[in-house]
Amino acid sequence: MAGLPALFDLSGRVAVVTGGGGALGRVAAAALAEAGAAVAVVDLSEAAAATVAAGLGGTDRAIGLGADLSTEAGVEHTFAAVDQAFPAVDILVNSISAPIDRHAPEDFPLATWNAMLAANLTSYFLCSRAAAQRMIPAGRGGSIVNFGSIAGETALGRGGMAYGVAKGGVAQLTRETAYAWAPHGIRVNAVLPCQFVNDWWRGNLADPDRRPLVDRVVSAIPLGRMGEPGEIAGPVLFLASDAASMVTGVMLPVDGGNLAMNAGASQDW
User: Fold this and answer.
1) How far apart are CA 1 and CA 103, in angstroms?
2) Residue pLDDT, tens place only, 6-57
3) 163 noted as active-site residue
4) Active site residue 167
5) How many Cβ atoms from other residues are within 10 Å of residue 129's Cβ?
6) Per the CB 3.0–4.6 Å rule, which of 6, 30, 67, 137 could disulfide with 78?
């Protein structure tokens, strides 16, 4: 058995991180780069992607690309650019998480529904397909890590139905592709974060009027707090690396115990 450091070593591998300009995507990109991978950071904002990539090393180690990955043209253009920059695609991390446009289910606009599913689910399918089209003929296997959510496992309400449905779809996409691509040595897994501190949640934490919402959310996390962005690095690196060489089709909660707790649970006797 390889030593523990070797199990997590990604030297010589190439990773594509979508949504790489976001709070969790940038952490995932940094973790993969620190483990030795060359990284293509992709974001709807080219400036955000470039900024993250600039912090990961020279152009032989990291590139930043701007693209709308909910379209076939955007995905094709992106992966063509990755092909030009690097010799292979070994790892894909799908971490796009579009801002939630909230509506009651009975009033949910179709245009918003379509946009949410395109960003949070269709992009995952298109990028996974593009990655597999490169991994399969290369014959080296590979790893795909999808960002699901606790919202895809249980209903959170608050008008976020389309987001939850998309994340539920991510879970099934993970299972389907894990099964289909296992003969090619391609492992597909997902992380399921709870609420992690990002710009939106940071604003809520600082606003006394939003304290009831914050308290409600934290009350459903047995560890008693939201996640910090850096805490996603270990789970993503584990699933992307040889440390998880026999792990595929798994939904890994990174949720402080949220999904382990029944909605009616209480510490009171």
Assistant:
1) 52
2) 999 999 999 999 999 999 999 999 999 999 999 999 999 999 999 999 999 8
3) yes
4) yes
5) 13
6) 67
